[in-house]
């Protein structure tokens, strides 16, 4: 048992060799094989991500408030003072850590599904980019693994390009959780933050925006190939104002890892979901995966389904400080055509049929 614990203790330290050596030293037990231990580590790595996303921010907020009522109030006060001082850091490029992005736990996270990154074109370090990521899925596993970590080798695949995955700005108001997100190069999805990265942080920046956002997550389910994009034009206007090239990105399999109960538009439950989405900033989806101990049961662990993220060809965008609606519509239409072409060119390689089409909502 001590050997097993020693194996897992090296996961977040980034010491992959120590894990493998510990596994080789395990006693020969019929029900305890190296492959099973690796699989357990993969499940744990995915489950910790889900729990972290759902509970870390709220949990740390409650803990901080509780500490003010204990003998540790000084620690809470010091952290709160630092939090106020550091409040604008997420909007100013954040505080990424290559050490965190290269944690060994992310390789187990990657291999659970598994997740792959496909490059179709070179990206110039002398340019800035806005990646449009589709679809959102429930937890955006492909987006996080490819752009919030180095598990799939983004920096080696695109040398000179620094990705910044954009997520809800509200997450950066939560103590500790905000620092955890920033360490992965994750930034708030608001204009101030994105403007800073594209105008005050040099070149070679790639801001990854999940275009469909929370609204799109309400429609994700196995077999669904639809994206919320028809009326989403803000990212195009932002690209024009900053002269950042647009890059369509599609993750095949993102919608396959969870099953969701989808309500019809106009139904009472759908109305409640949309109202809560506007209040909370995220969509309260009714979903399930498999159980932790029994794969045939229901639980929060996602199903093992391959996720393949394809980074498409960049669309060159000129810098126009005040783009007209006509120009915005033109580049928006170009982006949609490019995304559809990307989907059609790769769909049969990753489990879809030639007859499958991408629905733009």
Automatic annotation (TrEMBL):
One Gene Ontology cellular component annotation held by this UniProt entry: endoplasmic reticulum membrane
Compartment(s): Cytoplasm, Perinuclear region; Endoplasmic reticulum membrane; Lipid droplet
The EC number(s) attached to this protein equal 2.3.1.-
**Enzyme kind, highest EC tier:** transferase
What CDD domains does the record point to? Answer: LPLAT_MGAT-like (cd07987)
Q: Which reaction does it catalyse?
A: all-trans-retinol + hexadecanoyl-CoA = all-trans-retinyl hexadecanoate + CoA; 1,2-di-(9Z-octadecenoyl)-sn-glycerol + (9Z)-octadecenoyl-CoA = 1,2,3-tri-(9Z-octadecenoyl)-glycerol + CoA; 2,3-di-(9Z)-octadecenoyl-sn-glycerol + (9Z)-octadecenoyl-CoA = 1,2,3-tri-(9Z-octadecenoyl)-glycerol + CoA; 1-O-(9Z-octadecenyl)-glycerol + (9Z)-octadecenoyl-CoA = 1-O-(9Z-octadecyl)-3-(9Z-octadecenoyl)-glycerol + CoA
Q: Which GO terms describe its biological process?
A: glycerol metabolic process; triglyceride biosynthetic process
Question: Which pathway or pathways does this protein act in?
Answer: Lipid metabolism; Glycerolipid metabolism; triacylglycerol biosynthesis
Q: Which InterPro entries match?
A: DAGAT (IPR007130)
Q: How does it sit in the membrane?
A: Multi-pass membrane protein
Q: What GO MF annotations does this protein's record show?
A: diacylglycerol O-acyltransferase activity; retinol O-fatty-acyltransferase activity
**Primary location group:** cytoplasm
Keywords of this entry: Acyltransferase, Cytoplasm, Endoplasmic reticulum, Glycerol metabolism, Lipid biosynthesis, Lipid droplet, Lipid metabolism, Membrane, Transferase, Transmembrane, Transmembrane helix
| Stated family | Belongs to the diacylglycerol acyltransferase family.
Q: What is this protein called?
A: Acyltransferase
Q: What organism is this sequence from?
A: Ctenopharyngodon idella
């Amino acid at each position: 048992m001590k050997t097993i614990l020693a194996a897992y203790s090296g996961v977040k330290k980034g010491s992959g060799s120590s894990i493998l050596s510990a596994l080789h030293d395990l006693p020969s037990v019929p029900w305890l094989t190296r492959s099973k231990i690796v699989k357990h580590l993969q499940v744990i790595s995915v489950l910790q991500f889900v729990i972290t996303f759902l509970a870390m921010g709220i949990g740390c907020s409650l803990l901080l408030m509780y500490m003010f009522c204990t003998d540790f109030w000084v620690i809470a006060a010091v952290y709160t003072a630092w939090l106020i001082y550091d409040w604008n850091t997420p909007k100013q490029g954040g505080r990424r850590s290559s050490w965190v992005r290269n944690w060994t736990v992310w390789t187990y996270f990657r291999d659970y599904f598994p997740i792959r990154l496909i490059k179709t074109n070179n990206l110039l370090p002398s340019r800035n980019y806005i990646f449009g990521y589709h679809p959102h899925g429930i937890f955006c596993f492909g987006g996080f693994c490819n752009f919030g970590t180095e598990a799939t080798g983004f920096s080696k695949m695109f040398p000179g390009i620094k990705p910044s995955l954009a997520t809800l700005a509200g997450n950066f108001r939560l103590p500790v959780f905000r620092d955890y997100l920033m360490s992965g190069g994750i930034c708030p999805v608001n204009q101030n933050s994105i403007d800073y990265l594209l105008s005050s942080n040099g070149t070679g920046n790639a801001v990854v925006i999940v275009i469909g956002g929370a609204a799109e997550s309400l429609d994700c389910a196995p077999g669904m190939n639809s994206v919320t994009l028809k009326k989403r034009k803000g990212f195009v206007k932002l690209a024009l104002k900053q002269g950042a090239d647009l890059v369509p990105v599609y993750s095949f399999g993102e919608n396959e890892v969870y099953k969701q109960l989808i309500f019809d538009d106009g139904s009472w439950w759908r109305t409640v979901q949309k109202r809560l989405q506007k209040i909370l900033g995220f969509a309260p989806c009714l979903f399930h995966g498999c159980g932790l101990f029994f794969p045939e049961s229901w639980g929060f662990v996602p199903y093992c389904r391959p996720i393949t993220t394809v980074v498409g060809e960049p669309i060159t965008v000129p810098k126009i400080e005040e783009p007209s609606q006509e120009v915005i519509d033109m580049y928006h239409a170009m982006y949609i055509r490019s995304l559809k072409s990307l989907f059609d060119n790769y769909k049969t390689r990753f489990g879809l049929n030639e007859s499958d089409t991408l629905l733009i909502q």
